[in-house]
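Reviewer comment 2.1 asked that we show a complete input and output for one of the modelled complexes. We chose the coenzyme A case, as it is the one discussed in the main text.
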Amino acid sequence: MRITALRQDLTEDVLKLMDLGAPYVKARTSSDYWLYARLFASTCPVAIVEEVVAGAVIAMRSQENPEQIYIQDVVTHPGYRGKGIASALVDVVRRRGQELGCRLIYLTSEPDNTAACAAWKSMGFTNGPGDYLIDGVAITKDFKGPGKDRAIFELLLS
Ligand SMILES: CC(C)(COP(=O)(O)OP(=O)(O)OC[C@H]1O[C@@H](n2cnc3c(N)ncnc32)[C@H](O)[C@@H]1OP(=O)(O)O)[C@@H](O)C(=O)NCCC(=O)NCCS
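Response of the prediction step:
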């Protein structure tokens, strides 16, 4: 596996990869990926396996709180799941966060995305407290707007 920062020439393949993250991830537009490659490449690692774009993370450092990095999307190609790709990509973001002096990486999952919740926990993220529990996962009500309850996961950086 090769991991590279998101580049303009990878954006169309990353968009197609994100489509494979349905129903939990929805691909954004070409212009969005252009912007991520242009402004946030060092926190948007892409995994390439056998010349296939097999995984990608889209994350950005907050301007409001520069000690925080928000992971917007994580997708591994269905044919390559369970092989440590998401872990390796999140690790790149973690190391970049440490270089930048950040203290926290956080992300959200939909309450029923049990695979993702298990993945974040195994990577060392912590969850909760929230407003209610589903299968032991703390969910915060309306976190992303009315009716958009989310599980919030945080990883403290040393
Ligand atoms: C969630 C997702 C990104 C995980 O990617 P992945 O490359 O398969 O994950 P990894 O192989 O790096 O696994 C990381 C850890 O999560 C665990 N994990 C991964 N998938 C799992 C599953 N379906 N059930 C339980 N645990 C799982 C692994 O066992 C591993 O833990 P370990 O290191 O203790 O063994 C992938 O399933 C995916 O793309 N899903 C669709 C899109 C999505 O839901 N994205 C997240 C939106 S919030």
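The chain has a mean pLDDT of 97. We note this here for comparison with the apo prediction described in Section 3.2.
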